[in-house]
Amino acid sequence: MWSWLCGLLATSLCSAGVLRLLALIFAIITTWIFIRSYLSSSMKTIRLPRWLAASSTKETQVVKYKCGLTKPCPANYFAFKICSGAANVVGPSMCFEDHMIMSPVKNNVGRGLNIALVNGTTGAVLGQRAFDMYSGDVKHLVKFLKEIPGGVLVLVASYDDPGTKMDDESRKLFSDLGSSYAKQLGFRDSWVFIGTKDFRGKSPFEQFLKNSPDTNKYEGWPELLEMEGCLPLKPF
What we know:
By secondary structure, this protein is α+β, with helices and mostly antiparallel strands. 28% of the residues lie in helices and 24% in strands. It has helices spanning 2-42, 50-55, 138-146, 168-176; strands spanning 77-83, 93-96, 99-102, 112-119, 125-131, 152-159, 190-196, 206-209, 226-232.
């Protein structure tokens, strides 16, 4: 009799322990789902450029083609990828022929307009510079643009505010490079562009997003722009 009672008591205690364990697991799972749902609905995220997002993941991604393009460029074409800045958080980046000319990692980008000069025949990088278009002097930008020689590609990426200090002269100089949007570039707009001096017509390598509360991706800024592709030698 005592043996039977002891066995029954042990079985009851075991069952109670299993129930408590299951209740604990259920509580943990419920709490995790609630926290995840709350964070997803209450937090805004900033989309990173694909090259930066890929470098921040644990998985190593193998880049097969220059500048991370999904397809290789044909002969006599340059591979490129230009990303504008994301709000005032992540700076812009410029890659040309698998060479990262400007990026936050290289610590050579700045608020305003980031500009790189590339030889249109050889693809050699001739220089790069950032111009503060919020509190800087636009005369430095005008002087820089006027001194660009012929046959040079001009790569441009905005960051934070590219347009506050823009004047009629600087807008015309960009328009002469083939820009369709320089005349309307304003406060906190997003802009990426490739042009060349004395361009006849409009460059097909340009993207633009206006700063508008109705369409902005981030609070106070439009979404970042990513422009990539293959650029022919002497494209214009």
